[in-house]
Amino acid sequence: MIRPIAKLALISSAALALASCETVAEPAASAVGTTYMASLTGAAEVAGPGDPDGSGMAQISIVDEIEQVCYEIAVTGIAPATAAHIHVGAAGEAGPPVVPLEAPASGEVSGCAAASDAVIDRIKANPSGYYVNVHNAEYPNGAIRGQLRR
Predict the structure, then answer these.
(1) With bands split at pLDDT 50, 70 and 90, how would you rate the model's confidence at 127?
(2) Which of 49, 53, 110, 111 could bridge across to 77 with cysteines, CB 3.0–4.6 Å?
(3) Which pTM value belongs to this model?
């Protein structure tokens, strides 16, 4: 069964993510490139432990034309988030952040972040080599994490 907050993230369209971008007034539907999903859990956290009660969903949309990554993140079962990022790293590996995201401190967040053309190209070439990580005070190295997938 999909939790209501995760279901919201799953059915949200990339157009809604783009609408929240401050730098995009009225994006054309063709502006959105590929959209990726990530199921976030504490069990996926490397070098855990992550939050065993935490879960969430992230939707990441690449907007090539303006070198932005737009996102929607919904989390539950964790203390208020203090940071979120897209990191480089395959499943089971920890890696450095490459795109900063706004923390879903209230449980949900959407927005857009600048990303270099090189980072965007690398994510598109190998999405499973990147993951979304949400951090909080209790788990500063990461409360929940999930690999990107199409």
Answers:
(1) very high
(2) 53
(3) 0.80
